[in-house]
Amino acid sequence: MTPPFVFEMSVWETTPAKTSFKPVPKSWCKPWDELGLAIGVFALISCPNCHKVLSLAHPEFKVNKYGLVSPGISCHHCKSFNCEIYLDKWNRDKTLYAVAYTVGRKFRIEYCHASTQLEARFHLGPGKYNIIAVGRAVGFRVTDEKKGTLEA
Ligand SMILES: [Zn+2]
Q1: b/e per residue, 88-98, with b = 16+ CB within 10 A?
Q2: What separation in Å is there between the alpha carbon of 81 and the centre of ligand 1?
Q3: What is the rounded distance in angstroms from the CA atom of residue 101 to the CA atom of residue 47?
Q4: How would you classify residue 97: left for phi > 0, otherwise alpha for psi between -120 and 50, otherwise beta?
Q5: What is the spatial distance between Cα 10 and Cα 64, in angstroms, rounded to a whole number?
Q6: Are 70 and 112 contacting, i.e. CB atoms less than 8 angstroms apart?
Q7: What is the pLDDT of residue 1?
Q8: Residue 38, SS3?
Q9: How far does the centroid of ligand 1 lie from the alpha carbon of residue 16, in Å?
Q10: 121: CA distance to ligand 1 center in Å?
Q11: What is the C-alpha separation between 56 and 68, in angstroms, rounded?
């Protein structure tokens, strides 16, 4: 299974009238009124493959408190980006962290909002697991000796 892609939050540069903008690839941006977008558009993302812009709108898409967008995204421009995605800092106060851990022989990555790595570690709560790594979800990579590199 392809790991989710985490879009970094960014403020895209606009023209003075704010009617057009320069997207930052692999990032997401909150839309603004001057764009005159359809009602329900809650985020603009720049496709990691083709860098073109996709707008995410309710009710087609939903976002949970961790920034997980459902259903997953399929870029209609390049058709080669099909993935589950997260919007980093969807909850503005905190950063999205990825916690990589194993339960028995299974490798898992859990996402949570936290202010620090330490707080992210507490997110899993008590249980029989082994935390391998904790890091900011944007650009997070863990090397699993058996299966190679996993990215989040
Ligand atoms: Zn694309």
Answers
A1: bbbeeebbbbb
A2: 6
A3: 28
A4: beta
A5: 19
A6: no
A7: 60
A8: coil
A9: 27
A10: 34
A11: 12
Q: How far apart are CA 59 and CA 152, in angstroms?
A: 26
- Residue 85 is encoded by which pair of tokens? 């995605």
Confidence of residue 8 (pLDDT cuts 50, 70, 90): very high
Name the H helices within the chain.
117-123
- Separation of CA 51 and ligand 1 centre (Å): 6
Q: Which of 151, 99, 152 has the alpha carbon at shortest distance from 129?
A: 99
Ligand 1 centroid–CA 117 distance in Å is 32
CA of residue 85 to ligand 1 center, whole Å = 13
Lowest-confidence segment of 6-15, 72-81, 117-126, 140-149 by average pLDDT: 140-149
Q: Distance between CA atoms of 113 and 93, rounded to whole angstroms?
A: 9
Q: Distance from the CA of 123 to the center of ligand 1, in angstroms?
A: 33
What's the CA-to-centroid distance between 113 and ligand 1, angstroms? Answer: 27
Q: How many residues are listed for the chain in this entry?
A: 152
